[in-house]
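Sequence in, structure out.
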Amino acid sequence: MIPMNIRLQNMGFGGQCSMRRNTQASSGSGPATLTGCRISKRKIEVMNSIQRHTVAKARDRFAGRLIIAALVTALLFCGTGAARSQTAFITSATLGTTRNDFNGWLGMKFTVGASPITVVALGRMCLTSNSGTHPMKLIAASSGANVPNGAVSISLASGTAGQFVYGSLANPVTLSANTAYYLVSQETPGGDRWATEYTTVMTTPVASCDGAILSNSSAWSFRPPANTSFVPLNFKYAPANVAPIANITSPADGATFTAPANMMIHASASDTDGSVVSVRFFEGANSIGIAGTSPYSIPWNNVSPGAYALTVKATDNLGATTTSSAINIVVTAPPVLSGSPANDSFANAQVISGIAGVAYTVNGSNVNGTKEPGEPFHVGNVGGRSVWYQWTAPTSNQSLFNTIGSDFDTLLAIYVGNGVSALNLVASNDNIDQSTPQSRLSFTSVAGTTYWIAVDGFNGASGNIVLRWEQAVGPPPPANDGFATAPMISGSVGSFNSSSANATKEPGEPNHVGYPGGASVWYQWMAPTANPATFDTFGSAYDTLLAVYTGNSVANLSPVASNNDVDSVTRQSRVSFAPVAGAIYYIAIDGISAASGNFVLSWNQSSLGNLPDLIIWVNSATNYIITNESFLSTDCAVVEGLVQSGSRRLLRFTTETRNIGTVDWWMGNPAGNPSFVYAPCHGHYHFNGFMQYRLLNSNGQLVSPGAKVGFCLTDSLRWDS
């Protein structure tokens, strides 16, 4: 997997944004003041850098839903298979008398032969003076149910008398072998004329015509003998779909690799009567990747020692599938190199330490270092010469690490976890800048937490290591850092902004939502009524943990409700519970991996009315494009830290956020609101920390985080009725 920067350029607010009737909000320049911006039941467009700044037209206020879309240009590739021959079931017909005095459905009953058939079109014969439009459909005779996707409307306006007029089905329909069906057309009194059940037909052998059928109510009336039909009607069918062919072409059966193995798996696939739409790769029963176009190939990386059976499953344009024969490979354990570093393995990590406010240095080497089975790709690069260090943070402050002075191109990554294959990334870096191949990073550490530092070489580079670290002496923790100093919040509804920067975790404090956290703050709330209560951290600038308790001390708490993430995309938290009127509840706000920063805490009891409800609309994040772009050092994207200057490979895609609640969401004035940040380069406010994006590889490991999460309102469109 190639690391890619995700960049969504925010627009910023310009002018005023009161969102009242006949007003406009535009992306002007210079500082801006919002007079109470409101997100209604609209579509909110957020333009990225390949779109021009647009003037947004505000319309009437509507309570309800919202879409926030980062618009991108998407490239769609559609394949079509070879045209399939079509054959008419009825080859000739001798008409009975004609009438036009029936209100209902007329047609024929037929039974499919020993092999399924694929119906592609339905037809009605055009008789003299016919000019109407007729709905037609296929019905399962045993149940009377309509065959899914088996209906069309036929217009006879341009038909030729004595000829069938066909309408193609939107999707071909496969009819089961040895199964009876009705093919019927809707007729009306005084409309087009049709032939009676004394009409006889000749057919192809794929099915048998059992007789005529009609219905003017919910019941069907069968009129034998065989080879007769009302109207008459017909259908066209295609030959049975031939399944595709698929094989693995590389690696060869019996191939051997050394762990951690990195390989490309190549496959061939073809379809004689259509097209191959996907080839999915499997190791045993586990899917390891998919390819949609030829050449059909995927990377399979960091494979542990073991024996593996690989197959591919090809799917054609009509849904037929074929699974290839398995090829068997073996991945062996890596050899132990003579003179490997003492801290080559995670389990033998070299312990480093120090006090806050003092810079430290340790020298080492990764020559003959190896990569362990299950070890992640540090900074998304294959590496292969990693060594490990173990450091326990003495305080909860900003910590700085770098490899300046090392004589090779380094990779630097810091994790928490209890095993090399069970690590959570805290921070990572490849190059400090374009001319400095060494690494540098910083993060806010949590006192008492053990961190694992990996130093690797880009693409397996090795040499002498200089690892430097220092922990800054930071400001004191918040006043409500401890349970005992939790301030009281009151009322059935409320919301406020605050910060958990420099917060810590107390001895005896529980793991909120089952996570260690490490930067918690506390509040207490007395329930005014027994109505259901909801607390959330929407608008917070980091990945929160939210928990509610009862009890009288931090070591003697009873959990009431807790939540990590609202869903797989939204990293803020929401809990709901039924309180006891007059009872005191303790609310803890913490961060995943001790994350901290500005947060928003809101609460509401349901009797006070409806609320806005913003959700991430996951289904929208489907189409994407990858572009290569160049950036100057003066570009806002570089100045604001989205990317480094030079040529960059960008992944662009579309997301949406919708307000599925029943009332508007008021964002308010940005001045003094931590949800907004003033961007000097753009000259306007940005809506900060709105979303987080993370690019993962096929193993679920982080490849690259989103480079920016600032958005602003540029347009409002109602998205529902």
